[in-house]
């Protein structure tokens, strides 16, 4: 996969990745996904996305080569690779903030390294490829349990942990009403995971009917189309006894639809770090003293958000990239026990060679696409 | 609040992680207790920088590992070098990077042509799937595009005369 500019990608041969550090590994990819946050890159919304980059931060594969200091995995292991690149030893990794590692991204200090996510996230090539260099191979890569379906495993690299952490950061208590903005893969997973914390009511808001229908079935939640609502905030207030939801989750980020002002200033003119429409709605729909949890990806520049309402309502905002490694043990157990079924959101399986079509289908919401996975040629043999 | 008295236990997994004793409440309550030692960790081995790597001026050095595939080059590279003189909180950092991205796209096309590759925009944009799954919109867009092109050409021709 080779990025050529906004909404333009192609497949090309690139040099085989090499071990550049003693704790590197080379992984032969067997499955990779296109993530909703890849679309922010694809749409040209993330600064320092250089032409020639290979995207892809959700992948699993077989270890082909390891550096001299790698001890926790060996050649031939089937591994799932968390999207965060984390050293495991810095002050932030010690605090289990693996998404904020200080030793994996020289180009920005706010975010740690991420596979295939622009130079703002470290300039690494990603896993929508046949082979990928995996730094800190002793930290992130996790051997896939023998009895786990690889389709479940690949969704444990980002989507499931991000949805889970969105619910976790919401501090959901038994009996809470949770509203999730965005019925993409992460939003659907966040809705599903909200039940794990004891939510009594889960509502999802989006504007694509087929995604809402999917969310109703997969996450067993209420689902509403904001295009059919006069004002989603008023609707959510009304349906929660005029108080607001206990917890609101922004699972949309920079690419939000629904506000002309935000779309023009955030997406077209790029005067903001993306359109903050979902965040506006989350802040305004949550109850006073409630919690807003943000996992939707925004760029690094400023955003027009109603900070006055945050103060006046006494809202707690919690946000981060998911720290996949911290969450994996629990999520693997949930998948094994059948509580979670991540692969249930996969709707499209596409050969890697057709990655441009896959991006267009996913980006344009065609063919009822929820989650596409890419299969490299070597994994199809 | 509404509906809190309803029974949701029929939903698989409902409440399974709600035990406060078993809740990490991340990241608020997750402290190691040795935060005062945060500057004392042993840094991982430093990856060698064989290509130019730009680093944030909010840190004194490169991180121990980094990506190397697309070092800054050309006009976009010069703009990126300029951008990294400013901190991450500054528009002096991000706006030049956004400009550099746009110039980089043009550089990519020039580079393709130099190497004898004419970019296939139809394929690169994945428009085969638009034709397959969204034919009506595809035809509409093509028609409007053709109409605008014809109008522009006609206008230019008229001015020339």
Give the oligomeric state of the chains in this entry, treating copies of one chain as homo and distinct chains as hetero.
Answer: heterodimer
Helicity range of the residues of chain B? 40-55%
From the alpha carbons, calculate the radius of gyration of chain A and give it in angstroms: 20 Å
Contiguous uncertain segments of 5+ residues of chain B: none
Give the total of beta strands of chain B: 0
Order of helices and strands of chain B: HHHHH
What is the structural class of chain B? mainly alpha
Transmembrane segments (chain B): 138-157
Keywords (chain B): Membrane, Transmembrane, Transmembrane helix
Structure report:
The complex is a heterodimer of chains A (381) and B (161). Chain A is of the alpha/beta class and 381 residues long. In chain A, 29% of the residues lie in helices and 21% in strands. Chain A has helices spanning 36-42, 91-94, 150-155, 159-169, 185-194, 209-219, 232-239, 260-268, 277-285, 307-313, 324-337, 355-363, 377-380; strands at residues 2-5, 8-10, 25-33, 59-66, 78-81, 84-85, 113-114, 131-134, 142-143, 177-181, 201-206, 222-225, 245-250, 286-294, 316-319, 348-351, 372-375. In chain A, the strands form four sheets. In chain A, strands 3, 4, 5, 8, 9, 16 and 17 form a seven-stranded mixed β-sheet that branches. Chain A has a six-stranded parallel β-sheet with strand order 12-11-10-13-14-15, sandwiched between helices. Chain A has a two-stranded antiparallel ribbon with strand order 1-2. The radius of gyration of chain A is 20 Å and the shape is globular. By secondary structure, chain B is mostly helical. Chain B has a domain at 120-161. Chain B is 44% helix and 0% strand. Chain B has helices spanning 74-83, 91-114, 121-124, 127-133, 135-160. In chain B, helix 1 (74-83) runs antiparallel to helix 2 (91-114). The radius of gyration of chain B is 27 Å and the shape is flat.
């Amino acid at each position: 996969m080779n990025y050529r500019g906004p909404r333009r990608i192609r497949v090309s041969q690139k040099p085989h990745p090499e071990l550049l550090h003693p704790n590197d590994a080379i992984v032969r990819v067997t499955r990779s996904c296109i993530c909703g946050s890849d679309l922010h890159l694809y749409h040209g919304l993330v600064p320092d996305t250089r032409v020639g980059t290979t995207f892809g931060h959700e992948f699993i594969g077989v270890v082909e080569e390891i550096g001299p200091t790698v001890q926790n995995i060996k050649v031939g292991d089937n591994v799932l690779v968390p999207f965060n690149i984390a050293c495991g030893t810095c002050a932030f990794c010690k605090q289990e903030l693996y998404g904020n590692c200080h030793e994996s991204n020289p180009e920005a200090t706010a975010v740690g390294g991420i596979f295939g996510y622009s130079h703002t996230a470290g300039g690494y090539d990603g896993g929508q490829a046949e082979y990928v260099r995996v730094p800190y191979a002793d930290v992130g890569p996790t051997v896939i349990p023998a009895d786990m379906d690889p389709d479940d495993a690949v969704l444990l690299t980002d989507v499931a942990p991000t949805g889970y952490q969105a619910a976790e950061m919401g501090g959901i208590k038994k009996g809470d009403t949770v509203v999730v903005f965005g019925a993409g893969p992460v939003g659907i997973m966040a809705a599903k995971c909200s039940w794990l914390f004891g939510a009594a009511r889960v509502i999802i808001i989006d504007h694509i009917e087929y995604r809402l229908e999917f969310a109703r079935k997969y996450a067993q939640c209420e689902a509403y189309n904001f295009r059919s609502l006069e004002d989603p905030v008023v609707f959510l207030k009304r349906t929660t006894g005029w108080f607001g939801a206990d917890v609101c989750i922004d699972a949309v980020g920079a690419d939000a639809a629904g506000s002309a002002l935000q779309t023009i200033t955030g997406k077209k003119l790029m005067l903001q770090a993306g359109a903050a429409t979902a965040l506006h709605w989350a802040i305004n729909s949550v109850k006073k003293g409630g919690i807003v949890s943000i996992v939707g990806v925004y760029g690094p520049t400023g955003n027009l958000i109603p900070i006055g309402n945050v103060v006046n309502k006494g809202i707690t905002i919690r946000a981060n990239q998911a720290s996949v490694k911290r969450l994996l043990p629990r999520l693997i157990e949930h998948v094994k026990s059948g509580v979670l079924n991540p692969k249930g959101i996969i709707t499209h399986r596409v050969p890697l060679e057709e990655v441009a079509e896959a991006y267009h289908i996913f980006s344009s919401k065609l063919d009822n696409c929820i989650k596409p996975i890419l299969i490299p040629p070597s994994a199809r043999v | 609040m509404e509906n809190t008295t309803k029974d949701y236990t029929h939903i698989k997994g409902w409440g399974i992680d709600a035990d406060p004793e078993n809740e990490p409440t991340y990241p608020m309550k997750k402290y190691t207790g040795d935060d005062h030692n945060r500057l004392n960790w042993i840094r991982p081995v430093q990856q060698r920088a064989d290509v130019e790597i730009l680093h944030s001026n909010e840190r004194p050095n490169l991180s121990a590992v980094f990506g190397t595939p697309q070092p800054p080059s050309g006009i976009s590279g010069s703009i990126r070098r300029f951008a990294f003189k400013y901190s991450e909180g500054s528009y002096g950092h991000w706006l030049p990077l956004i400009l550099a991205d746009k110039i980089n796209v043009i550089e990519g096309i020039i580079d393709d042509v130099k190497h004898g590759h004419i970019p296939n925009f139809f394929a690169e944009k994945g428009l085969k799937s638009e034709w397959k799954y969204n034919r009506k919109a595809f035809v509409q867009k093509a028609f409007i595009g053709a109409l605008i092109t014809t109008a522009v050409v006609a206008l230019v021709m008229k001015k020339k005369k």
